[in-house]
Amino acid sequence: MRSSAGPAAGGRSRWTRVLRTPLGLAATVLTVAVLALAVLGPVLWGTGAEAVDTDNILAQPSGEHWAGTDNLGRDILLRVLVASRLSIVLALLAVAIAVVVGLLLGSAPFLVGRRPGRLLSAAVNIAVAFPGLLLALFFAVVFGVGATGAVLAIGFAGAPAFARLTQTLVAGVAARDYVSAARVAGVGRVRILFRHVLPNIAEPLVVNATIGAGNALLSFAGLSFLGLGVQSPSYDWGQLLYDGIGAIYVNAAAALAPGAAVLVAGLGFNLFGESVAKALGIGTRATRVERVRGPEPRAGDGAATPSDVVLDVRDLEVTVPGAAGPVRPVRGVTFEVRRGEAIGIVGESGSGKSLTALAVTRLVDDACRVDATRLELLGHDLRAADTAVRRRLLGTSLAMVFQDPMTSFNPARRVGGQLAEVATHHQGMSRRAALARAVDRLRSVRIGDAAARARQYPHEFSGGMRQRAMIGMGLMGTPALIVADEPTTALDVTVQRQVLDLLATIRAADAAALVLISHDVAVVGEVCDRVLVMYAGRIVEDLPATDLASAALHPYTRALVAAVPDMATDLTEPLATIPGRPVDPANVPPGCAYADRCPLADARCRTEDPPLATTPAGPAGVVERADHRVACWHAGEPFPADRDTDELVESP
What we know:
The chain is an alpha/beta fold. It has three domains: 7-45 and 76-279, Orthogonal Bundle (MetI-like fold); 309-528, 3-Layer(aba) Sandwich (Rossmann fold), CATH 3.40.50; 553-652, no CATH class. It has helices at 7-19, 22-50, 76-112, 114-129, 132-143, 147-174, 177-184, 189-197, 202-225, 237-246, 253-279, 353-360, 388-397, 405-408, 415-426, 431-444, 450-454, 463-474, 493-510, 521-527, 555-562; strands spanning 309-320, 327-338, 342-346, 369-371, 374-377, 380-381, 398-401, 481-485, 513-517, 530-535, 538-544, 613-614, 629-630. The strands form two sheets. It has an eight-stranded mixed beta sheet with strand order 7-8-9-3-10-11-13-12, sandwiched between helices. Strands 1, 2, 4, 5 and 6 form a five-stranded antiparallel beta sheet that branches. Helix 9 packs antiparallel against helix 11 and helix 15 (415-426) packs across helix 16.
């Protein structure tokens, strides 16, 4: 049964658990006491700390002056208590500067692109290599002696480490599917950073900022001790420590009191940071999305083209950087998807299926290069420069269903708010109207109690519910094309059937085209109208789904089908696999890439790469069909007499 407690209750329970631990309780009490001292110290003891008593100059500790007096007869302990405000305020200001500058430097590579980002990352890495105190001394000389210069010096000295942490965290979150989904929806990088990236790295950033406060306090005391920080007549713990060292042989307490204050306050902040790491949750309140309207669409924008072709791909190639030079994991892929049609793409891992889908949806990494003689969605050239019209087209006419719904949703935001963002960003809806549509879309994908579910976070959904909610996000617009990349992975067979039935229902109701990527040949053969078989980055066979089990022509396709167990499979025998290993995209051999694994391969197969074309009638008895293309010199030929169909595969 679902608990009625909200995120606030969860946060209270986490804090309660931390406060019950000795370390958490001690750190919290100590930090609160230090902050209270900073607020109340000058108010309670400010007058006494400034009182000059020439009759008690350099007095020893006593009942009246617990830490003795200085060279003007002023009470040292009271001055330590009063100095807490200036010491802590200046340390917190330095931490704030370090956090702001670190966030800017750490987030810049995500915002400015790959090449400028590398230069910034290199500069940050060089700065991190220097000790923090050395940087602080350098900046103290640059900014000048005094409290202001010391704050800037410590702030800028702490920024590189914070920037390095931010870079690492941002890079990890930026690779998540929900960030890719925001990009395909046309959301700008700045908005993605503040809405999707920073909320999900808030916990380690806050923890390190809290710990950084303790380090800044120690650094600031060190600069003041060296005479580079606070100057007279103002005073902080570092200056009091310097004064106390001069009289340490007369009155040791004069140095011990400010030293102990620095130690206790720094320890409190550091321990509190460790406690925050356990207590801080990642839930954040979704902020209102500003209504963004792109230019009004021209006639035909986002509407059906005169042809019923939804997606037209010609000679698609994807090139990625490799250790030994550029690698082409997708090579010359050509296909088209018509309105209401379901296309399945199958093949082993590494065959280029998912990368083809990412290239079509413009979600490949910035380091990848996508080339094609034609790449059009509803007649719009996806190779053209990014514009508001194209972003709106991708955000409303294309739905992407990712493999892992847990990484496809932003864990820091409620599900309803994430769905509503599509409508507010691309359709100009108000927040209330967009949330209402989000509830309606959740209901349309068969999620019960949709209004309540819309207020929940992704982790409160089951795996099947998250996948259906991801499909519902795609339906926030009016998708003409749904690209589903392994949508049933890690789901049990019952939920798999529900998801596939849902996709089929949506396709039938809205005449949406479907591109289904899967390892499951049986599922693709059942759900799709046409099947594209990929191997080593290219399509080796394009055939009707009804022919997949009985009329496949390419040896690789026949081996894939033979490797799928069915009700007639002999349970006493081990499951079969295709012999050999898939081709390394960085080392594709000449000729047919499948030749080394194919029982029909000859010398021609190892030197000439067969084109994807309609196979004419020949000695093998293959009948020419316009809807069946294959890339093989021996398409449909029977296997050698000593090799039957079952021997296309080998036992593991």
